[in-house]
Specification:
It is built from 18 helices and 18 strands. It is of the alpha/beta class and about 525 residues long. A hairpin with a 2-residue loop joins β12 and β13. α5 packs antiparallel against α6 and α11 crosses α12. It is elongated and about 90 Å long. The protein starts with 5 loop residues before the first strand and ends in a 44-residue tail after the last helix.
């Protein structure tokens, strides 16, 4: 993506029937890394996150906790979901709630447009409904229950029995969009990614789409249909519209035109909603479909998907309180191939923290700046003629910048980290090989010592820029210690795609002291 283009990235809006776990935080961090990268590249970037607050599950949860639905969602949003963003350093530009007036009012406009255009009709529906998913289930979505639910069919995701519902509802003519969707997938192979997700969606749509029930009349916690207030909008039909209601649909068309279409980062369990129902809704309304839907894998603990309903969730602050937010962000973006399922363990997190962050990056930064202070009074020295070893560092940095940017472009976040980490490994090897502490003992090697430390310091500057989307706190500390003018993350300091340009730190720049970026942790929380 060339500099200056629009990059609008979204997380799903999360369902606030309970507090967040690290699976939610994983999605937030992935979207945030992409947003930070594009901002620092000069792209017009906007990141949206938020909360999904309507539906039967919210109503039941609130009632069980002795609160009204509005009281319940207000409490959860303010006490848990918004604080999550601070806990893991999310730089979102907006936070949408489906109880916001800007959302509710413009959902009604969207629905009225579809109704007037003949895409919505009345009918009756009977089927198996999972309250946890807020979705009617096909037989293929159900499995045999175990334990207390033995002998019953249960939702494959929530492992709880479904309910048989028979309602008179309003329906969206989604069957009209079977072929238009297939044509779109073929014309734009990257619309759904990764490839495994695309194949799943295409095969699902090829079976033929049924019309979609989009209203409920058995409860009233939701947005009322503008032409029939005895019905509320189906929670997913309501929730998906947040991506355009937050961006100006119905009230600021200029803003919408400048931002839309978006890149949606979602968990694979909600892929079909985003890659099938959502583009069909937009086609019906005459609105451009999203730029891309990326369905990442699940976080597994003990081989099982993280789940609030199964009480297997881990709170993000359980990790950040010990390891810090940077380590949280780095670990989940590097240890798991984005798009695939990945297992979390405390042992792996602790090992990577020590080896890669404390010993690898952190030690590299502290010892390089310590040597500049010790041997050159804290002033960046001028480099002499570069040797092949020095030029190799320059080449590694340039290649890493290009490779990381290409990886970000295809949303291969883990590959971007790997490309950047090649600089960490190269610089550590370079310092070990060049032995600046030995050069310092020989006055005749003063120019060579200056060249080595100039090269190492430039490498650190590139690392601070490239790693800032992943580890904003540590890289800002490093940037300040390097004494470089401008704020890290601002284009005036360093556009990220130009991080490989050399000699960006003026000779004579004074470096500061650097506290341990990743203090050693004797034992991890169990």
């Amino acid at each position: 993506m060339s500099a200056g283009k629009s990059f609008y990235v979204t997380t799903p809006i999360f369902y606030v029937n309970d507090v967040p776990h690290i699976g939610h935080a994983y999605t937030e961090v992935a979207a945030d890394v992409l947003a930070r990268w594009h901002r620092q590249a000069g792209d017009r970037t906007w990141m949206l996150t938020g909360t999904d607050e309507h539906g039967e599950k919210i109503l039941r949860t609130a009632t069980a906790n002795g609160a009204t639905p509005q009281e319940w969602v207000d409490r959860l949003v303010e006490s848990a979901w918004k604080p999550l963003l601070d806990t893991i350093d999310i730089s979102n530009d907006d936070f949408i709630r489906t109880t916001d007036a800007r959302h509710e009012d413009n959902v009604k406009k969207f629905l009225q447009n579809l109704y007037d255009a003949g895409f919505i009709y009345t009918g009756e529906y009977e089927g198996s409904y999972c309250v946890g998913c807020e979705e009617y289930k096909q037989d293929s979505d159900l499995v045999d229950g175990t334990g207390e639910f033995a002998g019953e069919k249960v939702c494959a995701i929530h492992s709880k029995p479904v309910e048989n519902l028979h309602e008179k509802n309003y329906f969206f003519r989604m069957s009209d969009f079977t072929q238009p969707l297939l044509d779109m997938y073929e014309a734009n192979p990257n619309f759904v990614q990764p490839e495994s997700a695309r194949n799943e969606v295409v095969q699902f749509v090829k079976q033929g789409l049924n019309d979609l029930s989009i209203s409920r009349s058995s409860f009233d916690w939701g947005i009322k249909l503008p032409w029939d207030e005895s019905h509320v909008v189906y929670v997913w039909f309501d929730a998906l519209l947040n991506y355009i209601t937050a961006a100006g649909y119905g009230y600021d068309e200029e803003k919408l035109a400048s931002l839309w279409p978006a890149t949606h980062i979602v968990g694979k369990d909600i892929l079909r909603f985003h890659a099938v129902i959502w583009p069909a809704m937009l086609m019906a309304a005459g609105v451009e479909v999203p730029h891309q839907v990326y369905g990442h894998g699940w976080l597994l603990v003990g081989g099982e998907k993280m789940s609030k309903s199964k009480l297997t969730g881990i709170a993000p602050n359980d990790i950040t309180d010990t390891f810090g937010s940077d380590a949280f962000r780095y670990y989940f973006m590097s240890a798991i191939s984005f798009g695939q399922d990945g297992s979390f363990s405390w042992e792996d997190l602790s090992a990577r923290y020590q080896a890669e962050l404390a010993n690898g990056f952190g030690n590299l930064a502290s010892r390089t700046l310590a040597m500049v202070s010790r041997y050159f009074d804290g002033v960046v020295p001028a480099a002499g003629e570069l040797t092949p070893s020095d030029k190799a560092i320059v080449d590694v940095v340039a290649a890493s910048v290009a490779e990381a940017d290409a990886a970000i472009e295809r949303l291969a976040i883990h590959e971007a980290v790997t490309s950047i980490w090649a600089i960490v490994d190269a610089l550590n090897g370079y310092i070990t090989e060049q032995e600046p502490w030995a050069l310092a003992k020989d006055p005749a090697q003063a120019e060579r010592l200056a060249t080595v430390l100039n090269t190492a310091t430039e490498g650190l500057r590139a690392l601070a820029v490239l790693l800032s989307p992943f580890m904003p706190q540590a890289t800002h500390k490093l940037w300040d210690a390097l004494g470089v003018e401008g704020s890290l993350g601002a284009l005036t300091a360093q556009p990220i795609r130009e991080a490989g340009s050399w000699n960006q730190i003026p000779v004579g720049t004074s470096v500061g002291t650097l506290e341990a970026l990743f203090p050693r942790i004797e034992s991890a929380a169990e």
